[in-house]
Amino acid sequence: MSNKHPNQDQRFESWLQQAGQQYNEQVEPPEWDREAIIRRYGRAQQRPSWFMQSLIFASFALSCVAVSLAVVKDYKAGIDMMVAEQVEQQVNERLNVFEQQQKIRLAQHNKDLRSDFREQLSTSTTQLATYILATNREERKDDIQQLVEYVNDTREEDYSFYAQQLQRASAQSVIPMLEDE
Q1: Tens digits of per-residue pLDDT, 124-144?
Q2: Where does the source fall among the domains of life (predicted)?
Q3: Which of 10, 106, 166, 181 shows its CA 20 to 30 Å from the CA of 27?
Q4: d(Cα 99, Cα 3) in Å, to the nearest integer?
C-alpha cells in the first residue's frame, strides 16, 4: 500500500501525529457556577401533596405489578417448557414400549401363521396323496375290470368263431360223407 500512494501515507502520518499531540495537551474544563444550576433547576425540599403521594404510590404499585407479571410469565414459560419436555419424553418412552410390543406380537403372529400354514400344507398334502392313491387304485381296478371284460368278450367271440368253424367244418365233412354213400 505504501508503494502505491506515498503522498497519502505521509499525510496520514502527519495527521496521526497532530492528533496525538492534541490528546497529550491538557485542556482545562471551563469554569462555571455549578451551584447556580442546581438552585435554578433543583426543587426546594417540599412535602408532596396527597395527590402526588397517591400518584407516587400508584406508580410504585403498578411497577411492582408489571415486574411480578413479567416474573410470573417467565416462570410459567419455564414450567410450560419443562412440562412439554417431560410429556414428550413420556410419549417417546411409551411409543418405544408400544413399538416393541407390536414387534413381539407381529413376530408371534408371523410364527403362528407359519405354523398354521405348515399344518394346513401338511394336511392338504396328505389328503391329496390319499386322493391320488385312491383314484389310482380305482382307475387300476377299472382298467383291470375293462381288461377282464375285453378278454372275456374276445373269448366269447373266439368261441363263437371256432364254433361256427367247427360247424362249417363238420357240415362240410358230413356232406361229402353223404355223397360217398
Answers
A1: 888 888 888 888 778 888 888
A2: Bacteria
A3: 10
A4: 74
